[in-house]
User: Fold these one by one.
Assistant:
Number 1:
Amino acid sequence: MLNVYTGTRMKEAPRARAAETARALDQHLRQHPQQMTADGFQALALESAWKDRGVKFSRVWQAIDDPFPREVGREVQRLTAPGQSTPMITAETGFHVSTYIGEQPPKNVSFEEARDQLRDQLHERWRTGRFLELTSELAGGHVIEAYPDRLVGSSP
């Protein structure tokens, strides 16, 4: 998945820049369909032209409403075969485009055999969710007020 994050509290000017980045990314992907793979998405997100504009790569298991909102989940659920991709999706979290990597049949393995893979696949998702939860909690009861006239050396 490629993401251009906004969040519900983003101001209008940065949100407009994010929307412009998402439009440019969408146009780029339409012109370069060979990049609509997990490796292509990851490489694209590492290019300085996109990285500097806030494009992020993530490899996630998307349920109908987790980790991204329902708008994203509905589009992802429509993908049925490896190589298929969603259009650019607009959601409260930002702009997202996803590609279907594939499915693997269930495996019966011990925890020790699965531990590293589970950690690699789940830790980032847990960490991101915990960060969003913490920052939301910290910002919850606060209002920021500015009084520039109270600064030393300021003139009326």
Number 2:
Amino acid sequence: MKKRTLLVLFITAMTPLIFYIFLIFENNKSINEIHPKVISHSLDRSITWLIDNREKSLTQDSAILWWMIKRSSEITNDHRLLDIYNEYKNKYMANNLYNVWRKLFTPYGKTKINPDSLNHLPDYNLYFIYGLTCNTELGQLDIIQRQKNTNFCRDTHPISPACVTHQLMGLRFRQAQNCGDKKVMASQEKDLQRMIKRQLTWDPRLIDVYIQRVLMLVDTGRGDEVKNQWLQNILNMQSNEGGWGDFQSLLALSDTRHIGFYSRGIKFGKPTDTLHATAQGILLMSLLAQDTEDSEKSEEE
């Protein structure tokens, strides 16, 4: 009886480890390169999702997400993206001259910054705004100084899955504004890219941040280090409607109740497409489609 109990306990303890090893293997296995038509089809479906969910999406005043839609429209020259972006811009930005996020959409414009009025924002939003404006007063804040440190996420947000990608995004804004020593920033960019690659290797949860990690590698010139399986995983994540979400179902208990992964671990929920994940998916697919187009042009020349 005692041996049987010990055996049951051993199997119970080992099952999560075996499952994790299986997920790691599936996440990093070698597969053939994704065909460009698959990327183009995924992009078109994701844009269709955005248009189909236009009204709901436009209730979300998330500047970073709409900046991604704007960039996607510029990359693809897709009038559908441009139209919905312009609707967002007219609704939230046109008559709001003091919006701290205007710099995302009008890079050469001036934005007044009052650090005291930004205390309610998350750390990474403050870093984004600092990177966009290189505001001296904002740059003196302790939380900005700490985010300039490569080990910021390990020391301050060790369990935040998106911390490193957010830090890299803020750094990219700084680089665009020449806000810091170029060599130091270039070195830190490489360090953060390596961290993100490790996260993609060892964190196989197919959730929002998974897309964000691949997106940041591609967007910072490290698309060649993105495994084909990682791209395939993101394609597999895309719903039948064309969007992406932040919940990976592991077991369906009913139509509306699943158990699965989310950004903080495991929970009961239901796979649901979100603008947050889909905007990132649209930008990723736009960049990948552009890279393919550029490669084809180079081969023709």
